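Worked example 3. Consider a protein that binds adenosine-5'-diphosphate.
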Amino acid sequence: MRIGTKLILWYSGLLAIVIVIFGVAVYSVMDYTLVAAVDDTLTQTADQVIRNSRVQRIGEFGAPDNTIIWLPRLDVFRASGVGVQVWDMSGDEPRLATSSINLDYEQPLDGASLGLDQPVSKDVIINGQALRVLTRPLVARGTLFANVQVVALLETVNDARERLLLIMLAFGALGILGSGILGMLLSRKALQPINQITAAASQIAKTDDLSTRLAWTGPVDELGRLTNVFNEMMERLQELFSVQQRFVADVSHELRTPLTAIRGNLDLIKRYGMDDLSLEAIESESERMSRMVNDLLLLARADYGGLTLDLEPIDLDTIILETHQEGRVLIKDRNLSLKLEAFEPIRINGNPDRIKQLVLNLLSNAIKFTPDGGTITLRLDRIGDKALIQVRDTGIGIDEKDLKHIFDRFYQADESRRRMGDSSGLGLSIAKWIAEAHHGTISVQSEVDKGSAFTVELPVLSDESVSHFEEKSDHRRRRMPNWLMPER
Ligand code: ADP
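Given these inputs, the predicted complex is written out as structure tokens:
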């Protein structure tokens, strides 16, 4: 069932219940009030008759039970719409002692209530007419002598009841019908954007066109927000999809370059026989490919959460020293100077292999992008509860427009790419992942032709946590499995 239909049914059903409850309440109150007004008149009339009646016992020497009932003249009720009968109950059978002139009826108005010494009110039907009858006892010295029965037509009351019922039914039905129609129109209008969203979504599913957007001109209400969220989601999907496409294109491109070189060299060997130069080229290209595949595997595993780092308390200063040593080896064929500027003992909760990989990535970039004669500076400082590792160079620098992209996968600033051969554009993505996996950050400051400074900020291990870790350190000193490490 459609949401709109469900809403209308609920809404109209609830309205019908409210109308019925309200109608029953109004009807009962009105009925009670009208009948009470009739009963009031009947009671006053009966009171009047009883007040003006007198019972006299006669014959002091005769039969003591003989009584005379003196009754008022009942013609006064001629035009009042109320009739009165007085039934003498002193004999064996009830006897009509008198009745008002407007009443042409000689049977008891309410036979069943005669002889009762309590007032009784009843609805009766005589000759097809609805009547209200009040029977009151006439008692003297503890004995019931007569019953006064006062009657009024219920016609007016019944007319009012019928009219009210009719009006309530008509208005109730109209109200429910009207609200149903109005609800249908409103729900159609309100649900229209949802239908549009459904249509757009099914269009996307059919055509794979992620550029579809919803047009919304209404206010920023729930549906406006839904439309916005939908459009934002489409925007993001489109972006992710194009990133994925670019990623696949980049991977293929990057893998094709070393493959082409390998094939070219193999061709040469086939044609001219084995030579050392071709073999070396094949070796270095396949090493490059294998590094790239390892990097990709690492990032892919980090992406889907399948890679969590084993962290343990480590001395950052030792790692910086080691990377400094390795950096010196890397620059041995270059005219560069590598300085260890500041250096202090700092302990962090980290993974030594990954931290080393991070610093080496930064160092090898600095070496790659700094022309001969330049200087590369490495430093380790502690500022508050943060350890700062900085790799600074006096190299080619990074253009403003490239700065925000350099941590993206496969991103290589054009100029540097042209100059340097051995790059894949994955090094900084990995560095960023490692920093974040250590609850740290990585940032860069750079100026074209002046140089770049990469800063990694990592949380320092507090003294309490150090002692806590040291208790378990024996078995934790194990290093992380090496199988995932790029063979650098
Ligand atoms: P790769 O170095 O393999 O190209 P990275 O992800 O490490 O990939 O670096 C991405 C890009 O950032 C590099 O191609 C280069 O353009 C730029 N870059 C990184 N480090 C430096 C640096 N120290 N100086 C100048 N440019 C740099």
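Take a moment to read the result before moving on. Confidence is low (pLDDT under 50) at residues 471-488. The CA atoms of residues 51 and 75 lie 16 Å apart.
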